[in-house]
């Protein structure tokens, strides 16, 4: 089994290029195609120039999605395109070590009822220091929504098995995990730390006001009140990250 990877590139993320390249290289054996969404022409021109040389290091294919069709959020609609066979998202500033996709593949082979896999993950600062790490234990709806502990770059799914509901906007990732947990098709890997998430200043998770709006919207769509209490946890976590 191979997976296609969806990744989004902004020119401001060019400083993470070498790490992103390493992530793809680490898992190349299990990647069919990297589908790349670029913010604008400047970003696409920059990444195309770099990849024109570095793509020779890979066996997988790298293809660019059309410009100006979607933004960074609405582009996630590609995740349910069965023709693209996308099974994961690698945010450009996050990192995969070797074995990330292999671990997911092994779980899918052994467990036909599992459609969504989440590796354990480290969260690091810009200077590479580990701030904290995931501790999934036994995942329940209350834990998933109260603490939103699973980062999107750690998630792999059977291509074609998920639905993307754009109404969830910035919490599309959590809606995918929520539905998988309801369907009892989510596997949280407590043993393999194969993903590292960058907690940068100004990142989505550090924008507290936006987080409040996102969680109220999630509650309105699902009726599950646990997500509302996550507002306080998200605020505390943002303050903790800024203090490090």
What does this structure look like?
- The model has no long low-confidence stretch (mean pLDDT 91).
- This protein is an alpha/beta fold and 244 residues long.
- It is 35% helix and 22% strand.
- Helix 4 crosses helix 7.
- The protein is globular and about 50 Å long.
- The strands form 2 sheets. Strands 5, 6, 7, 8 and 9 form a 5-stranded mixed sheet that branches.
Task: Give a topology summary.
Blueprint: E1 3-9, H1 17-26, E2 31-38, H2 41-54, E3 61-64, E4 86-89, E5 95-96, H3 100-110, E6 116-124, E7 130-133, H4 141-147, E8 155-157, H5 172-182, E9 186-198, H6 208-222, H7 226-243
Parallel strand pairs: 1-2, 1-4, 2-3, 6-9
Antiparallel strand pairs: 5-9, 6-7, 6-8
Helix pairs in contact: 4-7, 6-7
Which descriptors would you attach to this protein?
244 residues; alpha/beta; five-stranded mixed sheet; four-stranded parallel sheet; 7 helices; 35% helix; globular
User: Total strand count, please?
Assistant: 9
Shape: globular
What gap, in angstroms, lies between the N and C termini? 40 Å
The assigned structural class equals: alpha/beta
Secondary structure tally, helices:
7
Helical content stands at: 25-40%
The quaternary organization reads as: single chain
Tell me the strand percentage band. Answer: 15-25%
| Uncertain spans | none
Order of helix and strand elements from N to C terminus: EHEHEEEHEEHEHEHH
pLDDT average, as an integer?
91
Rg, rounded, reads 17 Å
Largest sheet: 5 strands, mixed
């Amino acid at each position: 089994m191979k997976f296609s990877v969806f990744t989004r590139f902004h020119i401001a993320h060019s400083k993470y290029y070498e790490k992103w390249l390493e992530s793809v290289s680490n898992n190349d054996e299990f990647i069919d195609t990297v589908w790349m969404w670029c913010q604008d022409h400047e970003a696409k021109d920059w990444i195309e120039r770099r990849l024109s040389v570095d793509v020779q290091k890979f066996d997988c294919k790298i293809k660019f999605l059309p410009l100006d069709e979607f933004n960074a959020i609405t582009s996630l609609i590609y995740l349910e395109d069965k023709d693209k066979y996308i099974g994961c998202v690698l945010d450009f500033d996050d990192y995969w070590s070797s074995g990330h996709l292999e671990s997911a593949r092994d779980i899918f082979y052994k467990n036909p009822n599992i459609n969504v896999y989440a590796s354990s993950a480290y969260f690091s600062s810009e200077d590479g220091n580990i701030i904290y790490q995931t501790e999934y234990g036994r995942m329940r709806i209350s834990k998933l929504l109260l603490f939103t502990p699973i980062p999107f770059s750690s998630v792999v799914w059977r291509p074609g098995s998920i639905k993307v509901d754009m109404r969830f906007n910035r919490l599309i990732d959590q809606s995918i995990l929520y539905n998988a947990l309801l369907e009892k098709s989510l596997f949280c890997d407590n043993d393999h730390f194969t993903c590292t998430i960058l907690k940068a200043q100004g990142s989505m998770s550090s924008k507290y006001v936006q987080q409040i709006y996102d969680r109220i919207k999630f509650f309105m769509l699902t009726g599950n009140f646990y997500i509302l209490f996550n507002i306080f946890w998200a605020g505390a976590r943002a303050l903790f990250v800024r203090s490090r």
